[in-house]
Give the backbone structure.
Amino acid sequence: MPITRCHYLFLLMAILSHVIASGVQAQTKSNFEGFFSDFSVGYRNSNTSTSSSLTLNGTVIPSTLSTGQLSNSISVFSAGYNFAIAPSYILGIGANISPASGQAQPVQAQALNQTISLTGIKPLYNYGFFLTPGFEIGDGLAYLKLGTQTQVNNSNTSPNFYGYLFGLGYKQKIFQSIYLFGEADYAVFSAQTSVKTVSTSGHSINASVTTKPQGNRFLLGLGYQF
């Protein structure tokens, strides 16, 4: 009889262990682990600081600069992989690319009592790499975004801009592997200087234009978690 009771005790412990292990596994299973890809559209609020220095025959001439804004609409493609590093905690790694409008930023300088048109930057596309530490809330995921960002420009208008991206977002599963998400980002780039020679009224003016873009973007999108 003691042996039989011992067998029952071991059997009960095995059943309880299996139930507990199954429960823990169910709790630690993430809805957002694995590969993902998404597409978003939104609004970009650019704040490009631009300064210039105009010289004629080696002498700096007084001037004022005015710049126009580029398109504020934006679309972003992203893809990456999420790792479940602890129950409810996710660490994602990925890349994004965003096509630009392809239009050059209008730049005009007032000097020598006339308006001088300069060639502004002409962005072609943006791309970047990022980390997204996040925390699961039910069928949703709140996350931070930290990464690098590069703005590729037409080589005839300006060197490329290199900078950093900081963001905050939330994903919500809506049907099986499909999720909706919203994201707010801030990007800041290092300044770049381009030198141009402009001919006006029989004079050759050397224009040095320094540009530093920065700004926010607000995105809404749809994604798929593989």
In short: The chain is about 10% helix and 65% strand. The two ends are 54 Å apart (CA to CA).
